[in-house]
Amino acid sequence: MAQRQGGDEHVARDATQAYDAQVPRLGALVRDLTDVVRLESGTLTLTWAAMDVVPLVARVVETARDLPPGHTIHLDARTAPLCAWRRRAAGAGAV
Q1: Which of 57, 62, 60 minimizes the C-alpha distance to 83?
Q2: 19-38 pLDDT per residue, tens
Q3: Are 83 and 52 in contact, with CB atoms under 8 Å apart?
């Protein structure tokens, strides 16, 4: 019986860690969907601004490293800053 309880605690801990990892993603999704509604209703306007894409690409690479087992993903960003243009909400934080 003690072994089963320990196993249940392990499963519960793993589930809690998985939930904790997903909560920020769900929050970001809700914010993105709210922005879509604001864009479609005309209450959010966008302007163009330069941004360094290396931090964004680095986050994508870190996320993707866990997805395809057996693949190697490497980012060489020694030439930073690598800039691109993005749209930003006028008078507000970055979108």
Answers
A1: 57
A2: 888 999 999 999 999 989 99
A3: yes
Same domain flag for 32 and 54: no
State how far the alpha carbon of 48 is from the alpha carbons of 3, 5, 64, 87, 95, in Å: 59, 56, 28, 4, 11
Structural domains counted in the chain: 2
For residue 51, the enclosing domain spans 45-95
Q: Which of 87, 59, 86, 83 is nearest to 73 (CA)?
A: 59
Same domain (yes/no): 54, 31: no
76 pLDDT band (50/70/90 cuts)?
Answer: confident
Burial 68-90 (b: 16+ CB within 10 A, else e): eeeeeeeeeeeeeeeeeeeebbe
Tell me, yes or no, if the pTM score tops 0.70: no
- Contact at 8 Å (CB) between 89 and 44? yes
